[in-house]
Amino acid sequence: MGVYLSTPKTEKLSEDGENDKLKFGLSSMQGWRATMEDAHTALLDLDNDTAFFGVFDGHGGKLVAKFCAKYLHREVLRNEAYSAGDLGTAVQKAFFRMDEMMRGQRGWRELQALGDKINQFTGMIEGLIWSPRGSDSNDQHDDWAFEEGPHSDFAGPNCGSTACVAIVKNNQLVVANAGDSRCVISRNGQAYNLSRDHKPELEAERERILKAGGYIQMGRESSLSAVCERVLDRCLAPSTLGGEGCDNMTMILVQFKKPISQNTNASTAGQSASDTQPAGDTQQSLDCGEQLVMF
Description:
The protein has a single domain (about 5-135, about 145-295), classed as PPM-type phosphatase domain (Phosphatase 2c, domain 1), CATH 3.60.40. Strand 8 and strand 9 (about 190-195) form a beta hairpin. Helix 1 packs across helix 3 (about 85-105) and helix 1 (about 65-80) packs across helix 4. The chain has helices spanning about 65-80, 80-85, 85-105, 105-120, 125-130, 205-210, 225-235; strands spanning about 5-20, 20-35, 40-45, 50-60, 160, 165-170, 170-180, 185, 190-195, 250-255, 265-270, 290-295. The strands form 2 sheets. Strands 1-2-10-12-8-9 form a 6-stranded antiparallel beta sheet, with helices on both faces. The chain contains 7 helices and 12 strands. It is globular. It has about 300 residues and is an alpha+beta fold.
């Protein structure tokens, strides 16, 4: 049946967490896909006043998604721009840093290790190993300080991943994305995009790819995680004939428990809030009960 299973795997890896400011729920499901290639990060305490959430959809394999889930937030945290309070620049540099790390000799060994560990298990066991609840995925001690330079015979992995991350730090919300994983904020029951798809079906993105020298090929009742689970069930296709609803699925739902001040900077990395929200809405506070959806 190609990349699809004869019956979908509907077991879910779900998690809930909260602190005095935020409450989140998440759920992942393999669905019709032959393997689970999604990964995620959900950290309420990236540091004392910062939360980090990320969804990574592996394309052509799972290694890059797992690598980003393990290392992207660490690179944001250790970047000089982060220390200076420039979250957008810190996230942008961390995105590029992932490519640099994976092309190096140490990155090559790390990808091999991830592959070996992943291949020992399948389905939900795999998800549990690389969930941020695991002991190594939130380990801040390994800052990748020692590197051996590029690997002479390794240009990087031949699979890839989308990335959509949201950082909440004091009165700032910063969203950054690469690929077509999305972030949406619900305000008074209305959805507003905080990310912009990078898909070759979109004319502007198609032109950007070609101008850059690239090519396009093949074109629980009271918990937030229970809401995520219901959405995954609703999105699951009844068969693989139509294509939609057949992929791996991951969703994170974040609820703001306390209002954030009127000076909130809700923007995407490299994008002003006016590009992603209706005019006149960018200076509004994030009110108690508003929700951030990532998928």
